[in-house]
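Researcher: Go.
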Amino acid sequence: MATVILALLAIKCPTLPRCDVPSLCDYRKKLSPCRFVAKARKRPMKMGIIKFICQILSSNQKKNRLMKQPTKWFVSALAIASGLVMVNSSQAQPVTGTPYLSNINPANAFFSGYWNTPLATITSTPTGLEFNAPGGSGSFSTMYYPLPASQQTPLNPLDTQVTFNFMWNSGNAVAGVNVLFALDDSMGGVNYYGTGYNIPSPGLNSYTFALQVPNQANVAAGAIINGINFQIDPANVSGNYDITYSSLTLSQVPEPTTLVLVGLGSVGLLAFRRRK
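Model: Structure:
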């Protein structure tokens, strides 16, 4: 009702300055003058109060417009920081030169344990190297693959971590299964990395490890990876299991300043949304 009265007064009273609040102007087409207009003309004090309220409403509209500008700045900062993170991610180097370990030829690898028996089926697929083999006691198995020159990939000397992805396609793991790999670098460094005895989740399992010494020091000095070793201890698997070794990529840890920019941008956006 108070808004309606203000709208009528703004229309009828010649001494009342025009209010630039859009919502008040909408009433002009819907309402006709009423008795409050006549009373307001006879009461200067009431007119002063109405002017004051109208100015406050107009001021709030201007503040809302001004608040949009800092919000745009935070959006821009957040976009820039996110772009830097994506650039860092795009600089990851696959160990065999392809996003998936799909270019490994099992005929050029060396196997031991159950992987070296007719009981195992090893297949190169578009998403990696797939193993189907028996689990249970004594089923620890390994594979060594020397990378041919065509698959040896130049690395970034700033690389400090390796990301390992595998797919657990099937297998009744009644307890933990340790899935491991090793990186052999061209300067003679060999380091093993393992998931520990965890029960694999169906589908994708992803682990990121900090590069160990000597791998990290040799990569920083210009070494490349020229051999990989896959291992598994499926003693706690009842029956056969099926696993795909999907990818191995080296990358650098995102710079702290980039992460700070992302954090500040996100916090700033939340703060301004609450104030609005």
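Model: The two ends are 25 Å apart (CA to CA).
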